[in-house]
Design brief:
This protein is an alpha/beta fold. The chain has two domains: 235 residues, Vaccinia Virus protein VP39 (Rossmann fold, 3-Layer(aba) Sandwich); 133 residues, DNA Methylase, Chain A, domain 2 (Alpha-Beta Complex). Helices cover 28% and strands 14% of the residues. It is built from twelve helices and twelve strands. It has a seven-stranded mixed beta sheet with strand order 3-2-1-4-5-7-6, sandwiched between helices. It has a three-stranded mixed beta sheet with strand order 10-11-12, with no helix packed on it. A two-stranded parallel sheet has the order 8-9. A hairpin with a 5-residue loop joins β11 and β12. It is globular, with a radius of gyration of 22 Å. The protein starts with 6 loop residues before the first strand and ends in a 13-residue tail after the last helix.
């Protein structure tokens, strides 16, 4: 779809650039990327042209978000995006939530209030939806819905939640607010070669008549099973001998599925050379030391990968390892992990293997970010002629 005018965006908590690059692919023009971590900012600097920046230092800011004022951007930004630090809610973390100093949803809300963008996209780990975090998650959603109802000094979050609930149910005449929805998405259902479940929170400013909904899944496990065990086209495509082991097949799979098959590890990295040999690919270098033990077995070649993780103490569960056809086990190279996260091959990670894998593990898959951002952009364009005049700026 061709657009008459590009829309702009600003990203906070940009990390290694997965969501930011997806937003760029969707056609938004970034005015700035904000990231406090020096190593992640280094990666953004090295790839600044991928985001449309001619001068990395002018547009990419390596700073603590607490120190950044966004008031100069008020009513000038179409899309605010970012991934507030997820460790407070990670299944593999310490689950401190609002007691964790890395919970920066309050800063995301402040940014939202200062900028007043037409829409926002925030992404976080599926642990955010855990039952014991449910009340706090409700608090996050209400903060994002009414970003100008700020937490008072010395006010506890539970007290602020009560005020937000009262405001939400009190009157139809609201100040600046957003229509907010969220959903747990599995990246594999959108053609990403990885079983990666993440929460996406999407909001449209109240004067935008968007009629938006989450993009429909395009890929399925059933379709992959059909190609592997009914039509057997999967093995033909990769010139791999059909495995002799028996695979139980659901009778319903005898009819070709409507969706495309899940993308596998082999689909994603099968054409890359052996990393132990000299090659011309960025970041495609063998990393030794991989070992298998119970619960730490790696990803198989003919399924989507396990979720690429950014473990603070190594990579638990074997998510960053693969099992080769001969049964050998090894770590993914940085390039292989980047491919599984759908980064292009010319996206360079300048840091160590451990640091690069941390950035990749924390990233939004570029393709998934692009799919969601494109759906938001289409909605913003379709809403141009239906906008309410509530004084929040013009298109």
């Amino acid at each position: 779809m061709a657009y008459a005018k590009s829309m702009n965006s600003l990203e906070i908590f940009a990390g290694g650039g997965g969501l930011a690059l997806g937003v760029t692919v969707a056609g938004f023009a970034h005015v700035s990327l904000i990231e406090w971590d020096t190593n992640s900012a280094k990666t953004l600097y090295h790839n600044h042209k991928q985001f449309g920046f001619n001068n990395e230092k002018e547009w990419i800011f390596n700073d603590d978000i607490h120190n950044v004022s966004f008031s100069s951007y008020q009513d000038k930004i179409d899309l605010l995006s970012g991934g507030p630090p997820c460790q407070p809610f990670s299944i593999g973390g310490k689950h401190r939530a609002y007691n964790d100093k890395r919970d920066l949803f309050s800063e995301a809300t402040r940014t939202l209030a200062e900028i007043r963008p037409k829409a926002f996209i925030f992404e976080n780990v599926r642990g955010l939806l855990r039952k014991n975090f449910s009340k706090y998650f409700s608090y996050i959603i209400l903060q994002l819905t009414y970003p100008e109802i700020v937490k008072k000094e010395n006010e506890k979050w539970i007290e602020h939640l009560a005020r937000l609930e009262q405001y939400h149910t009190s009157t139809s005449e609201k100040s600046l607010h957003y229509k907010v929805v969220f959903r747990l998405l599995n990246a594999a259902d959108y053609g990403i070669p990885q079983k990666r479940e993440r929460v996406f929170i999407i909001g449209f400013r109240s004067d935008i008549n968007g009629n938006w909904s989450f993009p429909i899944a395009t890929h399925s496990e059933e379709a992959l099973h059909y190609e592997k065990y009914i039509s057997k086209k999967y093995w033909e495509k990769h010139s791999v001998k059909y495995p002799n082991k028996y695979e139980p097949v659901n009778a319903s799979l005898f009819d070709p599925p409507e969706k495309k098959p899940w993308v596998t590890v082999r689909d994603a990295i099968g054409d890359l050379p052996n990393p132990t040999e000299t090659n011309n690919y960025y970041n495609h270098k063998f990393q030794g030391g991989a070992k298998a033990y119970p619960g730490h077995t790696g990803s198989v070649m003919d399924e989507p990968a396990k979720t690429i993780k950014a473990g603070a103490h190594g990579v638990p569960g074997g998510e960053n390892m693969i099992v080769l056809d001969d049964g050998a086990l090894r770590y993914l190279t940085v390039r292989e992990a980047a491919r599984i996260q759908t980064f292009p091959d010319n996206y360079f990670f300048p840091c160590s293997w451990t640091e690069s894998m941390r950035q990749i593990g924390n990233a939004v898959p570029v393709k998934l970010g692009a799919i969601v951002a494109d759906s938001v952009k289409r909605t913003l364009y379709s809403a141009k002629g239906k906008r309410k005049n509530n004084g929040y700026g013009d298109f």
